[in-house]
């Protein structure tokens, strides 16, 4: 064996369908040993650190932000290309000064960057799209690098929806962005859009004093990536339809709309960069009706490097029709687990948006059901947060929304709902 | 473009391809692959799946027939409900001795089709060169055990072997594959199985303390020895065995009965003439 990072792709499913069965569900578990390849050593890492310095950041927040950005810079591996951006209604270079470009991290450049960060002041507005534009342009100058940006904000984006959306669409899949929301004045929906488009995560930093630790952890994770980019290449039969492709672990991320057609039966779905890690994906294929005993390949999944076309792992999603109910009704534990998690996420999202627009009935129904589901599936933390938003009378079972909900609790519930729990082996 | 280039369409994606093209430019499919049994596309890949409709292609093993010079015959069939045939059979003559071996892949084990194939091949070869039932069984057992990567990944199969000499028949078995005497339909083997039908003996790396049953006897009346898998015998209750025709015709008729009765499992039937019925 060489020191190539080894990828594995395992498929969990119940391939048996009843005679009228049309939907095939499978959970793909993709694992990487993250070993470093000679090829990968030559592929550089590039990191842009974006700090919100708008007016709302004044006081303690800007102090914590300076410290966090400095921590991120210190965490950079020597040799990594980096830059620091200050975000207001415009994007400004903090380090290096002058024209937008990335520089190599050395003891000297990191010390200079820290000094520049120390001079950051809070003033002005918030235009997240502008910040990502500048980061994107700098990163695009290094096509073979593992490209990542770390974004921190505490406020609401002042850009129009159209502008923001078109910036995200333009850069989608071209670098990975992990975002952090600080305080209780930011809008989870905005960072959710960034995470969805840029294949990253977003998280809530409830205590601003924890910001440095978040920055350190995200920078470290980004530094551990060894493979720049991989795609899930999915073939389905001509008569079938690929209903969705979702990342379901460690977080929920719908990839369905990110398809790039390879040929009429095959599409590529970006998965971003990889280190030593394991992720799970849920694929659903709608197949035409079949006959008893017939077996088809309902999906052929390959993990490919889009630059070289190399297939690093592959597997088959199968379907076989049977009139044996014991076979066709057997539920695959992993499929059920992640279907439940996706349902919980949707209930929370629906409930919170209904609540925001004053649709009390819908909000109450969704959030009460979410609370029930969270309790049933052992999501204790989520159930506890839901209890702060909706209360159920134990005697009558009647649910009602609570009046005074802590803003931070609501944000935590909102952001946390994309995180999924892993299925323990015993769960089967 | 020259005038004599004919335009055809790709069997996978239906994009136009020129007569001399080796690959479809739209989907990369190589031209001239085997034809799919279901949709007819010339697009069956090396793994046996159609690249257009996905169907796993039937293999030669889905239905096979063997006939010996003396009329002994065997058929094996996938049945109607399984995606592949995990039964395997061997029927061969060595001088005036006929050897028949039938194995049935254990459905809950991985690659059960490989287990039964290697077991019949190993045992039949050994029996045909004069090895004892026990020897042949041990060799087959070792060959099946070798397929396993661990006891959790152990291909397995049941086993029945018949050695038919002019004045003597020996049977060796483990599991629930069976032998009957015809025309009376008398059962000659006893299943290794508990009441619920689960088998208690098989060949495989995860088999523990399995002993071969051996039975030797002299045929006293002309007739046939039937060796079969449970894909047939589960439908024998109240069944009147065919009484006319060649062994091959009779075996085909029994197969038709199994399929008409539901064909739940793979079906394997071997019929060997006994006594005066031997030519
Ligand atoms: Zn084509
Ligand atoms: Zn086909």
From TrEMBL, chain A:
Q: Which residues cross the membrane?
A: none
What the entry lists under PANTHER family is as follows: CALCIUM-ACTIVATED CHLORIDE CHANNEL REGULATOR (PTHR10579), ZINC FINGER (C3HC4-TYPE RING FINGER) FAMILY PROTEIN (PTHR10579:SF43)
- One Pfam entry name: VWA_3_C
Q: Which domain of life is it from?
A: Bacteria
Domain VWFA: from-to ranges: 46-227
UniProt name for this protein: Secreted protein with Ig-like and vWFA domain
From TrEMBL, chain B:
List each copy of the PPM-type phosphatase domain by range.
71-274
Do you know which SUPFAM superfamilies this protein is assigned to?
PP2C-like
Family annotation (InterPro entries): PPM-type-like_dom_sf, PPM-type_phosphatase-like_dom
Q: What is this protein's name?
A: Serine/threonine protein phosphatase PrpC
Natural source organism: Nonomuraea polychroma
């Amino acid at each position: 064996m060489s020191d190539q990072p080894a990828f594995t792709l395992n498929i969990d499913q119940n391939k048996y369908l009843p005679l009228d069965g049309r939907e095939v569900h499978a959970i793909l578990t993709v694992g990487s040993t993250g070993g470093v390849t000679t090829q990968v050593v030559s592929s550089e890492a590039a990191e842009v650190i974006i700090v919100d310095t708008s007016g709302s950041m004044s006081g303690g927040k800007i102090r914590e932000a300076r410290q966090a950005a400095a921590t991120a810079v210190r965490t950079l591996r020597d040799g990594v290309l980096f830059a620091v951006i200050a975000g207001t209604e415009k994007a400004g270079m903090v380090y290096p000064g002058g024209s937008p470009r990335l520089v190599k991290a050395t003891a000297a450049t990191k010390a200079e960057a820290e000094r520049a960060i120390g001079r950051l002041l809070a003033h002005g507005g918030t235009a997240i799209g502008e910040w990502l534009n500048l980061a994107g342009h700098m990163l695009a100058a290094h096509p073979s690098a593992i490209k990542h940006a770390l974004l921190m904000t505490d406020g609401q984006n002042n850009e129009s929806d159209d502008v923001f959306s078109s910036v995200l669409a333009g850069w989608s899949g071209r670098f990975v962005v992990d975002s952090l929301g600080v305080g209780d004045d930011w809008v989870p929906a905005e960072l959710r859009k960034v995470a969805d488009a840029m294949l990253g995560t977003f998280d809530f930093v409830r205590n601003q004093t924890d910001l440095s630790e978040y920055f350190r952890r995200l920078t470290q994770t980004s530094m551990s990536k060894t493979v720049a980019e991989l795609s899930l290449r999915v073939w389905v039969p001509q008569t079938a339809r690929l209903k969705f492709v979702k990342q379901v672990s460690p977080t929920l991320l719908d990839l369905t709309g990110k398809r790039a057609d390879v040929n009429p039966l095959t599409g590529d779905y970006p998965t971003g960069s990889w280190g030593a890690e394991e992720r799970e994906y849920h694929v659903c294929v709608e197949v035409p009706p079949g006959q008893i005993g017939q077996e088809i390949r309902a999906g052929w999944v390959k993990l490919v490097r889009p630059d070289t076309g190399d297939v690093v792992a592959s597997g088959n999603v199968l379907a076989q029709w049977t009139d044996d109910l014991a076979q066709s009704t057997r539920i695959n534990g992993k499929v059920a687990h992640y279907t439940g998690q996706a349902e919980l996420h949707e209930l929370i999202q629906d409930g919170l948006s209904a609540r925001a627009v004053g649709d009390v009935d819908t909000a109450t129904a969704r959030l009460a059901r979410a609370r029930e589901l969270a309790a049933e599936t052992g999501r204790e933390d989520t159930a506890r947060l839901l209890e702060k938003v909706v209360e159920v009378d134990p005697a009558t079972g009647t649910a009602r929304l609570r009046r005074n909900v802590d803003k931070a609790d609501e944000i935590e519930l909102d952001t946390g709902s994309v995180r999924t729990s892993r299925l323990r082996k015993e769960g089967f | 473009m020259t005038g004599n280039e004919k335009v055809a369409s790709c069997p996978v994606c239906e994009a136009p391809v020129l007569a001399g093209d080796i690959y479809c430019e739209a989907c990369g499919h190589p031209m001239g692959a085997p034809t799919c049994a279901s949709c007819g596309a010339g697009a069956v890949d090396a793994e046996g799946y159609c690249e257009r409709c996905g169907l796993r292609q039937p293999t030669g093993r889905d239905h096979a027939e063997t006939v010996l010079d003396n009329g002994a015959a065997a058929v094996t069939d996938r049945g109607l409900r399984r995606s592949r045939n995990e039964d395997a059979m061997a029927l061969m003559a060595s001088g005036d001795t006929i050897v028949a071996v039938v194995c049935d892949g254990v459905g809950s084990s991985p690659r059960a089709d490989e287990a039964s194939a290697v077991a019949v091949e190993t045992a039949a070869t050994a029996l045909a060169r004069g090895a004892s039932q026990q020897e042949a069984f041990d060799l087959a057992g070792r060959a099946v055990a070798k397929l396993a990567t661990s006891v959790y990944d152990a291909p397995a199969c049941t086993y029945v072997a018949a050695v038919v000499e002019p004045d003597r028949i020996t049977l060796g078995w483990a599991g629930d594959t069976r032998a009957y005497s015809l025309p009376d339909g008398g059962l000659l083997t006893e299943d290794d199985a508990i009441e619920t039908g689960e088998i208690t003996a098989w060949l495989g790396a995860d088999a523990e303390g399995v002993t071969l049953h051996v039975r030797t006897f002299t045929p006293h009346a002309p007739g046939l020895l039937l060796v079969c898998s449970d894909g047939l015998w589960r439908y024998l209750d109240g069944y009147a065995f065919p009484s006319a025709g060649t062994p091959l015709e009779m075996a085909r008729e029994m197969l038709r009965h199994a399929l008409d009765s539901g064909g739940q499992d793979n079906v394997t039937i071997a019929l060997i003439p006994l006594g005066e019925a031997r030519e």
